[in-house]
Amino acid sequence: MPTVPEREDDAPATALLQRWRTVLLVSLVVGAVSLSAVWALVHPKFAVDATVHVAPVVRPIMYSDHDTDISRQYREYISTELVAMTSPAVISATLDLPEVSSLSRVRTATDPVRHVIKTITAEQVKGTQLVKISMVSEDPAGMAAIVNGIVQMYLRRHENKKRTWDERRLSSLRAEQIQLEAQLEAKAVQLRQAAIDRGLSVAQGAGASIDASISELQTLLTQANKDRALAVAKLATLNDEGETDSVASLDPAGFEAFLGADAELLSLKEQLRSAELSALSDERLGRGPDHPDARGRTQLIAALQDRISERAAALREAFVDSERRRLETDLRNAGLSGEVFQAELERLTKEQTDVAERLFQLEDLRHEREQLEGTLTQVRQKIRSVEVEQNRSPRITIDSLASAPDVPNIDKRLKYSAVAVLMSLFMGAGAALLRHRLDTSFRNPAQVTERLGVRVLGSVGYIPDKQNSRNAADQRMLEPVRGISAALLAGSRDRQPRSRLITSPTRGTGKSSLAMNLANSLASTGRRVLLVDADNHGQGITRRLGMGDRLGLREFLADTCSVPDDAVHAGGVAGLGILPAGVRDDQFGELLGRKQAQAKLVGLFEGYDEVIVDSPPVLAKSDATVLATLVDDVVLVLRSGRSTREEVYASQQHLAAVGGKVVGVILNAVDKRDARYSYGYTYGYNYAYSDQGGT
């Protein structure tokens, strides 16, 4: 089986090729409207301009930082001058000139200054030191007078501004020089007096001694704080009720020494040891616990132990009181030491700060003197620069004045026309692509397979109306229908379907013609084939074969004919029987829905090898869903460019609701430009053209 080709139907080139009529129509309409607007609204105009040369070295940026980019400074200066050339002050002075004030456009304008500002432009010529002042209008002589007047007024104002600026700058710099010289002299006197009055030589020697004393005091203060914290912790433990037994853990050696110094406790412990030795002697002598001596010694031992416990408790409380008094004394001593050390540390720190401040003051005086000297040097340099600049030639000069052209030199109609043509082509292409995107119809088998996920039995090409005669259509459909019938039979090898329903979502897909040719093709293989026209309203097959006056399906189901042979007529091919629609009947749907009529129809199908049933469209009448329950397979016929996804989805839902099995799709009236998509689907049959007549 050949491989499925890559989809190209969504490519822009393919979409534009398919929608070329839309592209052409939209482009012609938009192009005609836009070209008419261009030639009606756009008029040729005159343009006049004058140029001014601006030198790169100018006073406003001479004294800036040397690290600044000179080219950036020049661009900033040019931008400032461009604004000045078209400022309201320059325009107003220009309009007062006799040759300008007499112009009609100036006299008739409500706001002449604003009118001129809106129509004149000033810009730097790229890559040069020239500034071009230009104006575009339909009065070349008046524009030339205005542009030349603006240049003259700007240069006059610039020269006056330069002279005033030089005078003010020199006056300000000389006053600043006198002030700086006086400040520098006062600073020198202040520096000498500070070195004498503040005794800075002594302060410098005392700095090291103060630093050492501060370091030692900080160490002592830290130790005093530690001792105080330790005394506070121990005192808190002693003051905590229920923690008396922890005295031994705080100072076990001191506590044991305190107990050993008590004579009464030592005497009681000695008596207890003697009594315990006597008790051991009684045991060796065999005296039992009931012996009078043994009972007496036991009582004595118990009494001694009680007295020892009471004495130990009393001694423990005495030790706690003694330890508490000692810790309180240590705490007071540590606090006093810390206060003394802290006071001395603050005194030395203040003294150290005072010495450092005096040293810093001297250094600040020296730094201020150096700054004054540097500022004075810069002011003297600026004075010399301004004096030199006063004798130089002007930095801004006229390069050329404006002259009135004899013919219009700006005509944008051709450019706008080209833009209009391109815009119309883009809009035509955009409209075609938009229509293509919004189009949900099927145009080639690839779209059917991808969007529906069903097998494509084949496609039949489009035949123009001039070629759409019955004989020509049948001849052109012969080869593709053979392929469709072969694909239909090959796809059902695992079972033997007897009847197939040929239907479509809506009318106009050519399903009746396909059903007729499919029946002829199956009959030509030697099979007994029955072609049934079940579309009682449309009667596509019946009308095409001229059987409108013969008995048919309606009479067969209504029992108005005696035997099936009266309704089944012989076709043009051996083995082909045709059951026409019969008389039109608005109640045909009710007749078809009867179980008795359905049983008769199924019984009729059993007498043939193949049955092809042409039904009404699924979405037009319910007859198709009823017939789908009586046949083995359902084949949907779609018309290229007309059948949409929504229609097919709705048809599938209707058929699936009654258990109808759609085994494949036939795509009819495929444009020859999409014929390449036919190859590679359903066993490799490549179908050509077909008739689109019928329903």
Report on this model:
There is one protein chain. This protein is an alpha/beta fold and 695 residues long. The chain contains 23 helices and twelve strands. The protein has helices at residues 12-18, 20-41, 70-85, 88-95, 98-101, 104-108, 112-119, 140-197, 200-239, 247-250, 252-260, 263-284, 292-389, 413-438, 445-452, 470-490, 511-523, 540-545, 553-557, 588-592, 595-605, 623-628, 645-657; strands at 46-54, 120-124, 130-137, 396-400, 456-461, 499-503, 529-533, 569-570, 576-579, 610-614, 633-639, 662-670. Strand 11 (633-639), helix 23 and strand 12 (662-670) form a beta-alpha-beta unit. The model is unreliable at 1-8, 58-67, 200-204 and 675-694 (pLDDT under 50).
For the record, give the distance between the C-alpha atoms at the N and C termini, rounded to a whole number. 33 Å
Counting DSSP E segments of at least 2 residues, the number of strands comes to 12
Low-pLDDT stretches are 1-8, 58-67, 200-204, 675-694
Integer-rounded radius of gyration: 59 Å
Strand residue content = 5-15%
Helix and strand content put the structural class at alpha/beta
CATH topology assignment of the largest domain: Helix Hairpins
Number of domains: 4
CATH class of the largest domain: Mainly Alpha
The average pLDDT value, as a whole number, equals 78
Question: Count of DSSP helices?
Answer: 23
Shape: flat
Name the helicity range: 55-70%
What tags apply to this protein structure?
8-stranded mixed beta sheet; 4 domains; flat; Helix Hairpins; 10% strand; 4-stranded antiparallel beta sheet; disordered C terminus; 23 helices; 695 residues
